Amino acid sequence: MSQEQELREKLVRMGALLYNRQLAHGSAGNLSVRLDDGSILITPTNSSLGFLEPERISKIRPDGALIAGDPPSKEYFFHLAVYEERPAARAIVHLHSTYSVAVSCLCHEETEDVLPPLTAYHVMRVGKLPLVRYFRPGDRALAKAVREASKDHRAIMLANHGPIVSGATIEEAVYAYEELEETAKLYFIIGDRKTSPLKAEQIAEINRTFSN
């Protein structure tokens, strides 16, 4: 089986997993992977992640031109922006999951990191989560903002929209996204109760031990 066919089928499996775990709904959200030749496989526009078909997944060039499959997600341009800025990234997950989107709708005094480091696993898999200001759906100016925020972060939050998470593999990106959503859920469950997030020295130790 070719790398491309293997990744097409993996996108189908991961889309169904996320849909069945209720992290994706309707036709919202998109997944992508980067092939060795630089081309991108991305879920098609108006497709449900729960019902993808391998042969219909879009294949596009780094400039966005369609090579094969159905027309790509309307948000393909910010996937390209992340790949341009993060050479090691080979996969991207963008969903509209409930708790993460709720965090994106809050007023944040500090936008450099909009979720507290409640667990070591959030620090390891997500890291700091900066907020990118609101852009209307389809606004190509979002690509520039995403590119700038992605420079030093593997996960970013789009205001009133949801997270974009990148990884070295689609599995890594999916697991990081799930960790982000669980941290967002903890954030709301804890609410105004006094918490004990990880301290700076504890975070530094995790980053030294589990550097990637």
UniProtKB/TrEMBL annotation:
Start and end residues of each Class II aldolase/adducin N-terminal domain: 9-188
Enzyme class: lyase
Origin: domain of life: Bacteria
One of the record's GO molecular function terms: metal ion binding
Enzyme Commission numbers on file: 4.1.1.104
Family statement drawn from the similarity comment of this UniProt entry: Belongs to the aldolase class II family. AraD/FucA subfamily.
GO cellular component: cytosol
InterPro entries hit by this protein: Aldolase_class_II_sugar_metab, Aldolase_II/adducin_N, Aldolase_II/adducin_N_sf, OtnC
Cofactors, names only: Zn(2+)
Protein role: Catalyzes the decarboxylation of 3-oxo-tetronate 4-phosphate to dihydroxyacetone phosphate (DHAP) and CO(2).
Entry keyword annotation includes Ribosomal protein: no
Pfam family, one: Aldolase_II
Keywords, in A-Z order: Carbohydrate metabolism, Lyase, Metal-binding, Zinc
GO biological process, one term: pentose catabolic process
The reaction(s) this protein catalyses: 3-dehydro-4-O-phospho-L-erythronate + H(+) = dihydroxyacetone phosphate + CO2; 3-dehydro-4-O-phospho-D-erythronate + H(+) = dihydroxyacetone phosphate + CO2
Name of the protein this chain belongs to: 3-oxo-tetronate 4-phosphate decarboxylase
Database matches in SMART domains: Aldolase_II
